[in-house]
């Protein structure tokens, strides 16, 4: 009789054990499929989180590395080494300075402030208190306030790279209205250190801003209305550039190239001790924390279930083969080949495994989603509990710089997942069948029949 036909007759004759094997295969395949699906969903969620945060990387002082950052300053020389990276599609340099308005009055300014302001340190003898902030930028549209939409040009034009070093400026609409200024007018600002050093700036654009003044320190220089934007290099004409305020921002071609850009930067000759390439990494880690943990858990599930499933199936098949010694001994004694007996056992197991595999595909997405949701919920609860246990945490005060932690995951079964699970299932079925079978079939027919007695 053909060994394949014998295999199907054996399956129908042993319905109970066949159903048991199919049940175990179904559980193993479903859990392994869920593990791979959750890993893929986690990878997709982390990619989406990075894309949500954007593709900008800022070179600045590292606040966590206070020892090396103490005497460290970001320089244009260091910034220039990174701007030509293949990942950089645009870049912007900015720095800030303080200055004094000459011939016009900043919002909230009065003569009483000249010798000092409430909440601010007293100026050195002979030095006036500044009442303007000057921010230099290569492209005003790439400055943080304009990029986020808090500020926008309402008259005139923006600052672009072709205005590098020109004596032009952008002025806030309320400041312009209070001083009857318009596009094309010129204003003068001067250094707080050198009263003779006065610079004339032409107004090329008027902007509005939604940024709010600091309500706890009501001083003119801290009011966003009193900020002037000038082209990069123009600020070099002021002598009061604030220490450590130079910043370089690189806009990458793809958010997913952030890590590659950082690695490339480390290979440059730039000394990064005390400096930081920041792509909102702390926010990113906060967003993907639970997702990263369930990805690790799902990987562990794949390993443990695969090993445990192979062992359990191997033991069941081994017990089944021992019960069928007499059958195998008789078949061998009448001339049946050993490879055909192994083939029969493989056909039996593989047929049952295929049925279990097909069944698991119909429920795979739902099972994977349920497991993924439960794992994620547990991770979020654990993270929240850990945060509550940290002493000194400020309760009830939201952090506007933080993005919401990812609390949902879309788990779906892909063709790649099915291929991986099919390969693992096939390997488990073959190993769990051949190893026990060889332990019996290595004997001759007489020995097999004698052992059965």
pLDDT < 50 stretches:
388-401
Summarize the main sheet: 10 strands, mixed
SSE series: HHEHHEEHEEHEEEEHEHHHHH
Alpha carbon gap, first and last residue? 25 Å
Q: Write down the overall geometry.
A: rod-shaped
Mean pLDDT across residues? 78
What is the overall number of helices? Answer: 12
How many domains is the backbone divided into? Answer: 2
Based on secondary structure, the structural category is alpha+beta
Count of distinct strands: 10
Classify the beta-strand content into a percent band. Answer: 15-25%
Pick out its properties.
single chain, 453 residues, alpha+beta, ten-stranded mixed β-sheet, 12 helices, 10 strands, 48% helix, rod-shaped
Secondary structure elements and pairings:
Blueprint: H1 3-13, H2 15-53, E1 56-61, H3 66-69, H4 76-83, E2 88-102, E3 132-137, H5 144-147, E4 151-156, E5 168-172, H6 173-178, E6 186-190, E7 198-209, E8 227-231, E9 247-252, H7 258-266, E10 275-278, H8 281-323, H9 325-333, H10 338-388, H11 415-441, H12 445-452
Parallel strand pairs: 3-8, 5-7
Antiparallel strand pairs: 1-9, 1-10, 2-3, 2-6, 2-9, 4-7, 6-7
Helix pairs in contact: 1-10, 2-8, 2-10, 2-11, 8-10, 8-11, 9-12, 10-11
Walk me through what this model shows.
This protein has 453 residues and is of the alpha+beta class. The chain folds into 2 domains: 201 residues, no CATH class; 165 residues, no CATH class. Strands 1, 2, 3, 4, 5, 6, 7, 8, 9 and 10 form a 10-stranded mixed β-sheet that branches. A hairpin with a 7-residue loop joins strand 6 and strand 7. The protein is rod-shaped and about 115 Å long. About 3% of the residues have low confidence.
